[in-house]
Amino acid sequence: MFICVAGFAWLGQIILGGLQMKRFNEVLAQLPAQGRIGIGRSAGRFKPRAVLVISVDSRNIITGNFVMKGITVFSQPVSDDRLCGLNIDNLVPAHIYPDNKALRTALELAITNKR
Fold it and tell me: What is the pTM of this model?
């Protein structure tokens, strides 16, 4: 009985994780394609993680973004209006997210992403 319950929980986790990846990829495809994309993720095994994606044009202005944060596979990608229109050369993550270390770390990594 325990093995069956564990198997169904594992299967549910795979399905829900796949749906979360599908939502992430759909929103990523909708970001403005001109320029480059920066992706940052906070670390942590037992605390809520955050993934932040920014789209930057040729003048280093953020043209689009979204944030996914939380512990579960039910987290949704949400746009953060505070970032749109900012220049990444003058951006200070501690001023944008003073109370959220996970988002601050994710923004720092997204800015320094060299891809």
Answer: 0.81
